[in-house]
Structures are given as structure tokens and as C-alpha cells.
Amino acid sequence: MTDVMKIAFGSIVVGVLVLALKALAWWMTGSIALMSDAMESIVNVATAVAALIAIRVAALPADHNHPFGHHKAEFMSAVLEGVLIIIAALFILREAVQGFLVPKVLDAPLEGLAVNVLANLLNGIWCWVLIRRGRALRSPALVADGKHLLSDVVSSVGVTTGVLLAIVTGWAVLDPALAALVAVNILWSGWKVVTASLSGLMDEAVPEGELELIRTIIAEAAEGAIEAHDLKTRQAGQATFIEFHLVVDGQATVTQAHDICDRIEKALKAQVPDARITIHVEPDDKAKHSGVLVL
Asked: Residue limits of the Cation efflux protein transmembrane domain (predicted)?
């Protein structure tokens, strides 16, 4: 089992535990705001399962029907997560409206809040693990899951504070008001997850910093060539696809051109994890005098 899959499986375990704690807090208090917190945890568990399946599919080797691999399965998982987040938010808004119409006093509020704080602490720790390790392992599914959990942590802190204010002031209407605010926050979180995932599905180029690194590596490793132009990049899950045209001396042999390409590929793969490289070799009369000039 890969590191990515271990973390994805851990998300399911943590999600189920947090869901149980938040459901207990809701059962103890009857709070609509805490119910909204528990609803988001249901989404967390569902999306953690989806992320695990997507990561497993993305790890499959290329085959006849998918010659470029299955890397985009992770982006599909992230889109699904965003959609589920939005659906959960709409359900919470419905419950909040009913709470406004019929406000009620909370039961055992302090004990329920203590349980919710424990769940939020666990969520916060796991959120940090997901984002940190997801970025290190270049896993969009893990990063998306971590960012969603971060919004969950923020909204849980707000819910806890607000419910405490409702207890102190006796204003029962604060409870559904907080649930509505949580729903709006969740909607925004879901929208960001969907748009970020769609960028990956649309073959968005690598970030500018990474693109500059790729240019530098090509320039330093392409000794014997003249220039590299028409550089294109895209990311698909953990894979980075790089393609460009390499201009060499028109009198160079096939072996000489091939050796330069091998050297560039080796240098790129040493610094760009899971790089998939395509190089089109051209003679010097095809030079554009632009792009990456060889150092």
C-alpha cells in the first residue's frame, strides 16, 4: 500500500470517529448548529471513501484504453467531493430555516460542546496532515480533502463559540443563525474545491514557479542543442506532463540528438516527481530564437 493510499484510508478512520463524536454532541444538545457540523462530517466520510477509490484507480498503470494512465481519477474525486459539500450545505440551510421558525432551548449544552471541541481538535490535526502530505505526495484528492477539513475546522470553531453565546444570552435564535452561516461557509468551500478540480481536468499548466524550474533544468542539461521552444506542461494527479521542441545542429547524428534528449529527461525526472516527457527534435533551420535558450 502506497503512502497516499495509507493516508486516504486514515481519512476514513478519522472521519468516522469525528462523525461519531459530532453526532453525539448533536444528540446531547439538539442544536441545529451542531447538527450542521455533524452533517459536514458525513460528507467527509463519503468523500474520504471516494478519494481512496480514486487514488487506487489513479495508481493503475497505463493500459490499451488509457495509454496516458489513470491520473485524472483524483480530479474526478475532488469534483464529487465539491458537489457533495454543496448538497450538504443546502440541506443545512433548510434545517436552519425551520430552526428560525421554531427556536428551541438546548439540552445539556456544555457537555455537548465539550464533545464537539474534542472532535474539532482531532479534525484540525488530521487536516494539517492531509494538506502537508498531500502537497508533498502531489495528490489533488488528499489536498482537496484537507482543504475541506480546514473549512470544517473553521466553521466548527464558529459554531462552538456561537452556541456558547446562545447559552449565555438565552437567545435560542442564535443556534439556527449559526447553522445558516456554517452552510454559507460550506457552500463557498465546495465551490472552491469544484473549480480547482476542474482546472486539473482542463489540463491547466503547472504553477509559474515550477514552470521556471523546468525551463532552467532544460537550459542547463541541453548542452549540444541550440534551443527549446513550444514548451507545454500539464498536471494530472501526481504526474506532470512536459513536452517541447528541441532544436539541434542540422548535421548532428540521430545518436547525438538522442543522447541530449536522454540527458534532459534524466535531469527533469530527478527534480520533477513522476515527470512524463515528450521531446520533438528539430534541425537548426526550425529555430524560433525564443523559448529556452541553451546555456
From this structure: 11-202
For residue 265, give the C-alpha cell. 529527461
**pLDDT for 230-265, tens place per residue?**
999 987 766 789 999 999 998 999 999 999 999 999
DSSP, residue by residue, 125-174: HHHHHHHHHHHHTT-HHHHHHHHHHHHHHHHHHHHHHHHHHHHHH--TTH
Direct distance between the N- and C-terminal alpha carbons of the chain, in angstroms, rounded to an integer: 42
- Please give the grid coordinates belonging to residue 224: 549540444
CA distance 157 to 274: 38
- Closest alpha carbon to 137 in 253, 1, 2: 2
pLDDT at residue 261 in the model: 94
Cell output for 42: 458525513
Q: DSSP readout, 173-231? A: THHHHHHHHHHHHHHHHHHHHHHHHHHHHTTPPPPHHHHHHHHHHHHHH-BTEEEEEEE
Closest CA to 30 of 187, 170, 172, 186: 172
**Please, what are the domains in the chain?**
3-201 (1.20.1510.10), 208-293 (3.30.70.1350)
Q: Residue 77 has what pLDDT? A: 67
Residue 252, Ramachandran bin (φ over 0: left; ψ between -120 and 50: alpha; else beta):
beta
